[in-house]
Amino acid sequence: MPPEQWRCSAVHAAVLGLPPKLESVAQVLKLSEQKMSAGWALIKYFSVPCKPTKANGGRTRNLPEHNPEKWDMFKKYCIKDVEVETAVRKKLERFPMLENEQKLWELDQRINDRGARIDLDLVKSAITCNKQYSIRLMDEAVKLTGLDNPNSVAQLKRWLLEAEGLRVESLNKKVIPELLEQTENKTVIRVLKLRQQMSKTSIKKYEAMQRSVCPDNKVRGLLQFYGANRTGRWAGRLIQIQNLPRNKLKDLKLARQLLKEGRFDTLELLFDS
After folding, report:
1. Of 5, 34, 93, 268, which sits with the fewest C-beta atoms within 10 Å of its C-beta?
2. How many C-beta atoms surround the C-beta of residue 14 within 10 A?
């Protein structure tokens, strides 16, 4: 259905400075109708794939016949949700949402429904490349430190104290540059740089893309309208496209080509980071 035919009570609540979550807004408005607390457990049981086990016969989905009692409760939960939504809607009607905000929300829905196309081959290659690179970094760190897990903050802090007398409270990305200035020990410097590389989170974007992509290679629902309650600005969802780092590669096309072809050694040779 076209978004013009809808009125979203969650957005209406957010525009009025109220929490957009149904449970929270119902509590704030002190409605006689309240959301059922058992809802999340029921959603997880019926709407999320389950782990196949001997006890459940190896199934990956829970159907109504697997637990009729829970299914009856689930139906009551859905009915109660509609009743609470109706009560919220009636309460908010006294403070109509501006037409301009409604039109912006309609635009938001069209943007989210259209989605963003993902190069899935590139995504898969990036994840594979990262796995190979991470294994190599870990192997080198183990060789240099002798630790079981150099990626463990506790183990690495202890090693730094023993190897260089560096007593550190944290190993976050702001602290490591300071530590690099405090030592001339080449082994310690290399280990700290390996720590920097192993701590990078950029690959999480690719993993989020792989999890979120639809059969037509598009990701939808990337933006949350009125996600920031006070300012009304959009918020990112799933991949968080709003905080993607700015690209600084001059030969981006070549880098993408090498990555898709799986030429990881050449990629590292030409592009240091």
Report:
1. 5
2. 25
Clarify whether residues 149 and 110 are in a common domain: no
Query: pLDDT (tens digit, 0 to 9) for every residue of the chain, 273 residues total?
Result: 899 999 999 999 999 999 999 999 999 999 999 999 999 999 999 999 999 999 999 999 999 999 999 999 999 999 999 999 999 999 999 999 999 999 999 999 999 999 999 999 999 999 999 999 999 999 999 999 999 999 899 999 999 999 888 888 889 888 999 999 989 999 999 999 999 988 876 788 999 999 999 999 999 999 999 999 889 999 999 999 988 888 888 899 999 999 999 999 999 899 866
| Range(s) of the domain holding residue 250 | 209-270
Residue 104 sits in the same domain as residue 178 = no
> 80 and 25, same structural domain?
yes
Three-class DSSP category at 66? helix
The answer on 135 and 107 residing in a single domain is: no
If asked whether residues 140 and 179 sit together in one domain, one would say: yes
Q: Which of 8, 17, 31 is nearest to 87 (CA)?
A: 31
- In terms of Cβ atoms closer than 10 Å to its own Cβ (0-12, 13-18, 19+), residue 263 is middle
